[in-house]
Amino acid sequence: MIPGPTPVPEKVLQALGRHPIGHRTKEFQELVESTTKNLQWLHQTQNDVLTITGSGTAAMEAGIVSTLSRGDKVICGENGKFGERWVKVAKEFGLEVIEIHSEWGTPLNPEEFKKILEEDKKKEIKAVILTHSETSTGVINDLKTISSYIRKHNIALSIIDCVTSLGACNVPVDEWQLDIVASGSQKGYMIPPGLSFIAISQKAWKAAEKSNLPKFYLNLKSYKKSLLSNSNPYTPAVNLVFALDEALKMMREEGLENIFLRHNKHKLAMSQAVKALNLKLFADEKFLSPSITAINTETMDAEEFRKTIKNNFDILLAGGQDHLKGKIFRVGHLGYVNDRDIITVISAISKTLLDLGKITTKEAGEALLVASKNLK
Ligand SMILES: *Cc1c(COP(=O)(O)O)cnc(C)c1O
């Protein structure tokens, strides 16, 4: 139960085991056509959705290098490990970065984006880069509000890391007019790592015409050109595309609303159980990610706690990153996760706390009760 790689359904695993086919065949083109349509459905968009072979970071980097130019001014929102990564990428490519910070565990403040964008009368800011669901802290940022401020600016593109929000909660790409939305296969998609996805708007394609940052493999224009014939510029991870096809079919069967409801109830069950167990949520409770719950262990060593749960129950939980190592642990509930998984992980955490003498059976019972109330 880590926030990626996430569990993979049997059907999807079986699709992976097929013999690979030529990526220039009609059969593969048909697959690209249908997965692209289903990806547009998942993103709630008419925009192009490109599939590249590479992890989520490749998708974000592709979005940046394909649309921006040397010396461009960008805003980067940073309230966790991934936000920090996009600051590094932007700087690596020589962009002039204005950072908007928020303490890890708290959301970015949309008003700070508004202020800087409004003050940019010369329209020098070319993009706003941020992470929707910050996996390192379990915080979801208010993308809806921030994107409305980006639109008012009119020039800046939005380049959004939706790696742990897409396929977990509502990310209506067209309604919010998001320009670049990046996601990765090993998160909400229920398939192994290796593919990533980029939804890209007409406005972003216009910017791509003028972009002069160095790029080759990650030049999205090549992917767009190939997609016109349902093809790929380079050899894609063919078997992962088989898996993608199956996974997207399963998602369509479940339906977007149901997928969002499922993630929401698991988020509520987890967060309420955590409180009943006298543990502290690391993230601001009004901004909990649908995909990950980060738990503050305070006096306990979170790494020891994680190890005990792995040894006793064979459940892998994620640790804290950087300065949070040993201080928090994180439960991933993204993708192919059901009520049983949630009840099991809560029970495993409760039993471990009982053994450590941190709680009594009263709290353990209460945690299961509040969790079950949400699992209907
Ligand atoms: C997993 C993840 C990524 C992508 O990381 P990769 O290891 O490159 O797949 C990006 N952003 C967030 C928020 C993530 O959780």
From TrEMBL:
Which residues bind substrate per the record? 330
Sequence ranges assigned to domain Aminotransferase class V in this UniProt record: 20-321
What Gene Ontology terms for biological process does this UniProt record contain? glycine biosynthetic process, by transamination of glyoxylate
What highest taxon heads this organism's lineage?
A: Bacteria
> Where does the signal peptide begin and end?
none
Q: Which cofactor does it need?
A: pyridoxal 5'-phosphate
Which InterPro entries does UniProt cross-reference here? Aminotrans_V_dom, Aminotrans_V_PyrdxlP_BS, PyrdxlP-dep_Trfase, PyrdxlP-dep_Trfase_major, PyrdxlP-dep_Trfase_small, SP_NH2Trfase/AEP_transaminase
Protein EC:
2.6.1.45
Transferase is among the record's keywords? yes
- Residues bearing PTM N6-(pyridoxal phosphate)lysine: 187
- An example Pfam family from this entry, by short name, is Aminotran_5
Q: Listed GO molecular functions?
A: alanine-glyoxylate transaminase activity; L-serine-glyoxylate transaminase activity; L-serine-pyruvate transaminase activity
Q: Which UniProt keywords apply?
A: Aminotransferase, Pyridoxal phosphate, Transferase
Write down the top EC class of this protein: transferase
Family, as annotated: Belongs to the class-V pyridoxal-phosphate-dependent aminotransferase family.
User: In its UniProt entry, what is this protein called?
Assistant: Serine--glyoxylate aminotransferase
Species, as recorded: Prochlorococcus marinus str. MIT 9201
